[in-house]
Protein 1
Amino acid sequence: MKVHYECLSCIVTQSQRVAELSTEDAGKRREAMIKAAKFLGEHFNHDAIPAILGSEVFLMLYDYLENDDPFKAYKVRSNLLAKSLVEDLRKKLTIDLKCALKLSIAGNVIDFAVGYDPEKIEEDIMKMLDEELYIDESRELFERLKNAKTLLYLTDNCGEIYFDRLFIERIKEEFPELRIYIAAKEGPIINDATVEDLLAAGFEDVGTVISTGSRIVGVPSGGLSSGFMEAFKEADLIIAKGQGNFETLSEFKDGRVFYLLKAKCPPIARELGVPRGAMLCLRR
């Protein structure tokens, strides 16, 4: 997916948050925003992919501001709240494969990029459980899982990963012969999950945890680890969570990929032809 006009202001807003989370020095914040503006002036063009361009700007600011993980506190809070909620849901609900899929999509709401307050997570998740998916190709996904030997699951944000783990547990129960790879970022970028986050959440109990080898949001066309590329090529089926994975992987038009996401911003909603806020399970 190429940039839409709103992507510029979104990247600028997130750059401001990076600066504000990294330093109290107003002069340094201003210099950081000047650097971001110059970078965007050079690279925001018709061929830019928002997830990749944004990542490049943020990593440049991380380096300048000498803060390698400005969203750390937000990620910790998201993980703690989501973990607690998933534990409660296990006790309250009968969670079959379809319910777990919906929870995984609903968990995609936890996103600093759209200013989400993770304290609202329980209320929002319970509301979304009662919603129908606007595009629901889960039946095809489950049929494909029956015949697949290898699944690659691409995670997205912290907090959300606890719902992903629940979904992967159900997949593993339903398809015990399936080999499952679960991928996360090599290092911190915004509130995306890293390999370290997956290990802390116990993902090694449900699959093989691997790194993309990159800190870029989504799956960029270069800079990926050989281990990730092997898993990507081997996979019969790929489940890609969130907007960043859609923005990058939709460029390849790979029929193995099923996207699970909530259309949280106008560009994604416009790109997919759905209302903003729609919950989606689709192959594209």
Note: DSSP finds twelve helices and seven strands in the chain.
Protein 2
Amino acid sequence: MNQPYHVYVVDAERSSREALRSYLETHGLRVTTMDGAAELLRRMHRARPDLIVLDMALPGTSGLQACQKLRAEGDRVPVIFLSARDEEVDRVLGLEIGGDDVLGKPCSPRELLARVHAVLRRALVPPGLPMLAMAPVTIGRHEFDRATRCLRCGERLHVLSTVEYAVLAELVSNPGVAISRERLLAASHSRAEGLMLRAVDVAVMRLRKRVEPEPGQPRYIQTIRGHGYMFVPATEADGTAAPRREARPLPGPLAQRSRRGMPTGALASPSMNTV
């Protein structure tokens, strides 16, 4: 029988963390509460949870700093931030630093539960079950290992954030197909807001810096203007670059249809490759 998911709730406000603990446990989760980042980081070396609910503004070491430290150590544990400040810059920073979702405080326990399940569906397999073996995907000089959520280049290994992983996994699973930003968002987050759409663009820019020989002129992760992005793998014929095709102007409806069904190897024009 599978064990319940284990969630850490880290919040300096006792009433808040106990209310969340009670609700999450009522709905089948195992919950451990703590009041600071120092305790969280100590516990992470003894028993890793399936997910962390983490207040951004903890006293001493903040939640943001704790998450940054975990990501720097290569820890991919999913993190949902709680933020008392309803400001765009805080939410964007939380996602850029490696968080998987951001929820305002005070939060609805019911909404938090939905977010927890959404993040777990994206990030994990059921407890006790092995992760399915998936062949790595070659992207230039890099290999993207979907099973370990890593990019490898020679001996160098980079652990992707959940947003970066979700975006890249969706793209490489559909080579030559233009994927909308909304669809990439759905693979990465639980709600489609303008702010979160920009988080997809940020993830793409970070991925390009990793895998593209010239990030300003991307070869593998192409931009489809007004729509989204497309992964264009190298072909056996050229080894490192697929041949470019001259695009012919198409009337509006045909152009829209063409974007959704571009064949592998077809490239967007250079003007389409900026985020």
Note: Residues 173 and 231 are 9 Å apart (CA to CA).
Protein 3
Amino acid sequence: MSDTATSGVKQGFQLKSASVSMTALELYYFDDSEFEEVLRDKISQAPGFFKDIPLIISLEKYQGLDSELDFFKMIGTCRRNHIHVIGVRGGTDDQRRLARGAALALLPGNGQRDRTHEAEQAAAAADEAEAAVVAASTSAAGDPPPAKIISQPVRSGQQIHAPEGDLVILAPVQAGAEVLAAGNIHVYGPLRGRALAGIHGAESARVFCQSLEAELVSIAGHYKISEDLQDNGWKSAVQIQLRDDLLVVTPLDKA
């Protein structure tokens, strides 16, 4: 160990786990010119949301040939449009080899895991089993996961994250702000920023707000942007829930 480490001098950095909201581009096939055209069309629908976001390319439903996958072109196209590709999810061994050659991170797909991580999976399964026992005993005792309560306005550029349970905000969520929760999100004021409920896949999660003016609302990865939300319940008190993979907006007085 170095003298610096043993002398109590603070290290230059620490590694910590972090929850980061990311968008996945689910790729079915790749055509360079069409890719950029469609990407620009999507960005034009919500330019504030897509600017400088991290992006994962999902290959789980990709149906083209491996030789068609030019990750360098995809990265360049996204970068020209202020989107940053950081990794790929799923894919075959050859596709992942190409992604690695483009300096992209490799993430396991929803229906697969790398064989090299089997030992880690076993350990994770044991941890999950133990957590399930703890959760069951907690549920039996009648103690739901605690809600995170925020009493101050959530301002532009802020991110509020509730990794367990619900998130309750007793003030407005301003445009450019982002609120995330494992469970439901309750906003007792205007919701003008982005709200992502059920971030760990809970499709029963809901978003409640006193005035729907959101840039984006997402439940378990299914989302609607501002233009789609304005068709129903805009600037009124609503709840938003997931039904048959579609987000449904319902006025609170009719819920």
Note: The chain has seven helices and 15 strands.
